[in-house]
Amino acid sequence: MVVLPMEANVSxxxxxxxxxLPLIASTVAIHSLGLGLIDTRMxxxxxxxxxxxxxxxxxxxxxxxxxxxTTVLHGPDGELMSVKxxxxxxxxxxxxxxxxxxxxxxxxxxxxxxSDPHEDWNLFDTRLDNGWMFAPVFRHxxxxxxxxxxxxxxxxxxxxxxx
Length: 163
Fold this sequence. Notes:
Arylsulfatase, C-terminal domain, 4 helices, single chain, extended
């Protein structure tokens, strides 16, 4: 029997977490398709004059996009990673890879996606007159946090009692 030494810089959970990515993608796809089917059946039930419809791609695309955005904008720990407002993106935390740690920069990084879609040039590295962008970004963060406080997530095993 040959025992291979484990590299010191590999975390024990890192490789297992990577395997969950295809499961997350397939779960989002299955749920989007299911919601599309429910949407189609509801239209048929509510409007008997319409012929049977197949689930349209648009509702499925929208639901998948919302799930993807929610997944991308939040880290594996559920904390907010970035905020996009109009053409600007502000990164609060980032990671170089799924097996790398999450880094919180000393100052949030901001990018103008219309002129820099690859996010190569942090606006605050070259210009310091963009502080106004933080007002709408943090307004959205405050609204989001107030929403989470008003409508908290249901803990595992907890009974939903309504809002």
